[in-house]
Known about the structure:
heterotrimer, A: five-stranded antiparallel beta sheet, 1 helix, 5 strands, about 15% helix, C: alpha+beta, about 30% helix
Amino acid sequence: MCLAIPVKVVELLEAEQALVDVGGVRKEVDVSLVDGLEVGDFVILHVGFAINRLDEDEAQRTLSMLREMGVEPGAAA
Amino acid sequence: MKYVDEFRDGKVARTLAGTIADEVRPDRRYHLMEFCGGHTHAISRYGLRDLLPPGIRFIHGPGCPVCVLPIGRIDSAIELARDHGVILCSYGDTMRVPASGRTSLLRAKAEGADIRMVYSSADALKIARENPDREVVFFAIGFETTTPPTAVALRQARAEGLQNFSVFANHVLTPSAIQNILESPEVRELGTVPLDGFIGPSHVSTIIGSQPYEFFAEEFQKPVVIAGFEPLDVLQSVLMLVRQLNDGRAEVENQFSRAVTREGNLKAQGLVAEVFELRDRFEWRGLGEVPYSALRIRETFRDFDAEVRFDLPYRSVPDHKACECGAILRGVKQPQDCKVFGTVCTPDNPLGSCMVSAEGACAAHYTYGQFTKDSAVAEAS
Amino acid sequence: MSENPKPVKRGYIRPLDLKHGKIELSHGGGGRAMSQLIDELFQPAFDNPYLRQANDQALLTRPDGRIVMATDSHVVSPLFFPGGDIGSLAVHGTLNDVATSGARPLWLSAGFILEEGFPLADLKRIVDSMAAAARAAGVPVVTGDTKVVERGKGDGVFINTTGVGVVPEGIEISGDRARPGDRILVSGFLGDHGVAIMSLRENLSFSTTIESDSAALHELIAAMVEAAPETHCLRDPTRGGLASTLNEIARQAGVGMIIREDDIPVREEVDAACELLGLDPLYVANEGKVVAICPPESADALLAAMRSHPLGATPRSSAK
């Protein structure tokens, strides 16, 4: 039920719908819960609705932090 | 898949686990409750327990909306389909939850009730539009992530003047559940459930923001880290919790910063407030009656409230005698402690809700937890 | 006496309306309507010497070797999907069941249960597809049956196919032969069929470029068995996917198995579709893939044989 996945907006449609893409799969979803969306934005998709934007800068920041983190397991602290 | 695959990188996971192993203090354990069923699933599916040092203990929380739905509410849904002849639209997971009398939505469907699986509240609206001569009821469940989609559907139904659409609302609230756990005797007084910190839910928090958790950190002095959905998110959050506990801090930190802000999605919150209001109390499987923990449809949308449109008396039904879902949802027991786990109760033949949903603790343990690094592997001769 | 007797005037029988006609109960009644259906639809499509005998059975010559028989009933919905239809699926499915014993398929039968009201145009499309699949595979449909059920009592059409084949000497392929140390091989991308089907189902609408992988595997399997006759198990991972198939074999043989996620080929779109639907690609159906379990020393030869066949172009090998 918590099932949610980041998807990319590829086309804005009428009636507060949008066409989104994840890994080459496209689906029409409701975007009425997120204002000011543009083509190319990423959103979190849950039960057919975009529930929030995904901030790409923050995502990259988190990824960089993750990759820099840590020592090899077992090495002295 | 962008922003998914990168957060499942095995090499980074192992180095992260190494850091955690270096920083855990050997003289203590870290009891971390992962509230959200999605995290329970991720921990089991990606074998995080095997990666982490033994001092890290995960306690499963009640964050699985299918799991906490009491039998009585499912009985009402079946009654709607069977006795009132409605087209009942339900999310997939709810279909197999055992209800009274050895039945379930799926079994009722097999016996002729018009019960249809939908992926979205929008699908239920579509069915209502396509069947103007039938009553269509949407069986709405879920935490704060799933409530806004129901609110949108209700507003749309009203805007279109749909006469044959209504919602059977069972939306529940995360902070109330967390409070209930923290105030429970096992946690507060007896100490039978040692609880050091929380791995906060990912997608609920995109809606409600990180702000609501500040109360718990403050009042109960337990750190909360809001964690993303993927294994690297969970691991990073564990590290952040370990560091907070080592430092003696009790703050709310946001690991899922790419989708969660302090205030959350204000538009979604506004829509929900327009359509729903608090119930005085609501029964949760495992937790009993919890005050101010669930939502019902407001007066202004009462036309679309299935509980008003149809006469649906509520009967509280206890769980199956052997079922330990209640204790498991409160974090008091682990799935393996249940006598029927994996024997009589399996995903194919579930006795309780924790074994049905993909996010249920029992289902997660059964599907992914059977084979761990401690299991014997016979070498090929 | 007349030397040229006048020909008997026959009543005019209107041919089947294959464009707009519908199946009626009489088409299953064993009488003139059913004969017409056979003469104008089934027989021309499947045409072969056995069917031309027009008997209720096919007279076959016993082949040398051990005989294998397999049967499959097909109830897939929707009937038509990207990459195939219930007809080609019915042919491929049974051919594959026969072939995974190591046998060479020889003959097929086809039984139809049609729903009253089913469009003849759709039936023709399905039958032509079956006939094409059978012809491409070099395996004739030698006998068949047709029944019609009342409207509402069938899902359009149900098809049963049964196949008979012969196993060459020295080939012992069976689920219980898997042994510790064996390698597990898979002939290509997993999950295509299940996702192609689900993309059409009601309530789940998304457009992918995924097609069903439905295919006849007997020639690929023949090449595999020739290259590695000591192969222990072959199975096609249909309903329930790779995971269910491996679990079945594990139970039959009393062994455990380890597979590595990185070794399992899944298309990005199939992965994404499964993620969207909350499915595990390991449990999604395939209709044109084969799983092989062989002793470690045969793995290289088996892999090479698979790779050199168009249906095995992206096979993967995994550990024990």
